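Researcher: We plan to redesign the surface later, but first we want a full-length starting point. Tokens attached.
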């Protein structure tokens, strides 16, 4: 399963990099395949481990923010591994063909 999620700390002012970094740190320390861009963090693994990481990341932000917003999008595809990489490789192949 792949989950792309975004955690937004609310009630902490305009500077949210430090609270967001707390969430990204949790994801990176999880050991699961992940990547972060300007809008979302994407993580891959089985349901229980991925959702546990998301919860831990939300909890880390909630320690410093009175309110937390979570946006989550999931790709549930049993039996598939390394989808974060293979999906992009497939896209790149289609982009390079005429």
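Model: Full-length starting sequence:
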């Amino acid at each position: 399963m792949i989950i792309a999620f975004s955690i937004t700390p609310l009630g902490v002012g305009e500077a949210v990099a430090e609270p967001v970094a707390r969430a990204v740190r949790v994801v990176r320390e999880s050991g699961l395949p992940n990547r972060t861009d300007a809008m979302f963090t994407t993580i891959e693994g089985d349901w229980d481990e991925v959702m546990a990481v998301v919860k831990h990341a939300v909890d880390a932000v909630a320690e410093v923010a009175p309110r937390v917003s979570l946006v989550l999008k999931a790709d549930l595809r049993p039996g598939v591994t390394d989808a974060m990489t293979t999906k992009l490789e497939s896209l790149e192949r289609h982009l390079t063909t005429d």
